[in-house]
């Protein structure tokens, strides 16, 4: 009976040992790296189920131990060894399971903590981003820039870096124990990039705000300097006007004041631009504060400019205007000399030379005419003359007269140049035909004065060659006619002498051809 009992116990021990081995093998087979967060729950539930099974099987193990010791008999040494091994394996598996449950419980908590920390830190980064990128934060004045700097500094100091450090502590811990979830890794990486970028943006914004503060401090100093300059300049101008001293009397002083007025004009425009930019950006309080200062100095500056205009009134305007008007009148009165009435290129060349002198006269006085026009309009704009409309009319007439004469002289120059070139070509072409005619006429006269000799081969060949040359002269006469038409087109009037010279020369050549034909009929 004891043997039978021991055999049954031994079989149950073996069955329980096989169960333990199967569970350990099955359970720890798929216990590698974690790549998605559901694995935390799956593995935790897996080990919790095994823990439950172990708890349920624990009763079986204790029953086997008790049965080996029952009836007061001496326990079997062999069974006792088996049971000791079983208990050892049981305890080992139990510890592993407990350890895994503790591990995955911790990992699950770390994962949840990491997600919560990322949510909190990203929410803080959202708030930080809104503070440094909200449009109304730009174009602030000194007061608002200072307030924003304080706000950013307090906002960053009030947020400890412990959560940031904890995020990477947990991330490193998970990576160490082969937890590599792509989504959470991506979130951590994006958080790191965003944290670094936004803190870099904070530095840039702080730098911008500090620059704005510096700009406004500089602006304040420039306004104070301008007020001091206006007070000093007002004293100087009052003294000059009281003593009837004007800009032309003290040119270096006037030039210096002109530069300074221009500089402060630009300065005031810059302030206006800044006020406009503040209003567009919705910074109405800042715009109002700056505009209050601007209105005061602008009014004082305008009053000072009125005094400066009186001081600038030129003393040389009237003499220069009269001189320019007379020169233009002289050019107008000499314009008739440019009319082309001769077909002599040398005469036209002299006209061209005269035209170039008129052109040079207009070119030489261009700057003076522009000066008179500019000063005249300036006098009108600045209210430095009583009859502004009369002066405006005179300046307009002077400008129109100069432009009209300039256009007419330029046209005449081009016309004379073209006509001269065509006339010289005409003269050259005409001379070529005429010289040929004179030579041919001389030869035929000698032949005509000799006795007629039939079949004189030399005479016959010369007549034939000369008549062929006459035919070729048709092209030369066509060139002359074309040149005549071009000249008439340029001059816009006929020059009868050209046509008469062409006709007479053509008549002479035609007559020569008839004489040659008559002689040819005789000698052949």
Automatic annotation (TrEMBL):
Keywords from the UniProt entry = Calcium, Coiled coil, Cytoplasm, Cytoskeleton
Where does it localize? Answer: Cytoplasm
Please name the SMART domains in this protein's record. SPEC (SM00150)
This protein's source sits in the domain of life called Eukaryota
| GO terms under cellular component | plasma membrane
Coiled-coil boundaries: 388-429, 463-522
What name does UniProt use for this protein? Uncharacterized protein
Biological source species = Rotaria magnacalcarata
């Amino acid at each position: 009976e004891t043997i039978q009992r021991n055999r049954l116990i031994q079989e149950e021990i073996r069955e329980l040992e096989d169960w333990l081995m199967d569970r350990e093998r099955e359970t720890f087979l798929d216990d590698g790296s974690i790549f998605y967060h559901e694995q935390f729950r799956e593995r935790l539930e897996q080990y919790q189920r095994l823990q439950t099974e172990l708890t349920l099987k624990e009763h079986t193990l204790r029953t086997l131990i008790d049965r080996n010791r029952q009836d007061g008999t001496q326990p079997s040494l062999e069974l006792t060894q088996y049971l000791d091994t079983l208990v050892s394996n049981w305890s080992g598996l139990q510890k592993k399971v407990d350890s895994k449950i503790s591990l995955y419980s911790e990992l699950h908590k770390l994962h949840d903590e990491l997600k919560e920390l990322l949510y909190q830190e990203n929410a803080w980064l959202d708030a930080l981003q809104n503070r440094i990128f909200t449009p109304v934060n730009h174009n602030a004045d000194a007061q608002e820039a200072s307030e924003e700097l304080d706000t950013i500094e307090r906002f960053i100091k009030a947020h400890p870096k412990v959560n940031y450090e904890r995020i990477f502590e947990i991330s490193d811990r998970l990576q160490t124990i082969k937890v590599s979830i792509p989504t959470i890794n991506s979130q951590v990486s994006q958080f790191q990039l965003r944290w670094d970028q936004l803190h870099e943006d904070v530095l840039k914004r702080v730098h911008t705000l500090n620059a704005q503060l510096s700009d406004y401090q500089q602006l304040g100093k420039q306004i104070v300097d301008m007020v001091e300059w206006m007070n000093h300049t007002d004293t100087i101008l009052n003294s000059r006007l009281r003593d009837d001293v004007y800009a032309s009397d003290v040119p270096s002083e006037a030039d210096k004041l002109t530069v300074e007025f221009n500089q402060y004009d630009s300065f005031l425009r810059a302030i206006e631009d800044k006020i406009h930019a503040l209003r567009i950006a919705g910074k109405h309080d800042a715009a109002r504060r700056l505009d209050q200062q601007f209105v005061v100095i602008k009014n004082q500056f305008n009053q000072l400019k009125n005094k400066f205009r009186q001081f600038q009134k030129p003393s040389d305007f009237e003499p220069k205007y009269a001189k320019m008007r007379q020169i233009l009148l002289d050019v107008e009165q000499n314009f008739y000399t440019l009319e082309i009435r001769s077909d002599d290129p040398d005469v036209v060349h002299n006209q061209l030379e005269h035209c170039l002198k008129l052109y040079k006269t207009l070119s030489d006085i261009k700057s003076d005419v522009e000066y008179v026009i500019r000063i005249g309009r300036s006098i009108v704009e600045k209210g430095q003359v009583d009859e502004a409309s009369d002066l405006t009319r005179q300046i307009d007439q002077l400008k129109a007269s100069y432009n009209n004469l300039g256009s007419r002289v330029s046209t005449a120059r081009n016309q004379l140049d073209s006509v001269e070139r065509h006339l010289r070509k005409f003269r050259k072409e005409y001379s070529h035909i005429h010289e040929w005619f004179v030579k041919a006429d001389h030869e035929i006269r000698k032949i005509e004065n000799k006795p007629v000799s039939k079949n004189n081969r030399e005479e016959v060949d010369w007549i034939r060659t000369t008549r062929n040359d006459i035919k070729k002269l048709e092209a030369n006469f066509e060139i002359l006619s074309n040149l005549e038409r071009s000249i008439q087109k340029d001059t816009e009037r006929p020059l009868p002498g050209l046509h008469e010279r062409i006709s007479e020369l053509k008549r002479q050549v035609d007559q020569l051809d008839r004489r040659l034909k008559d002689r040819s009929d005789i000698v052949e």
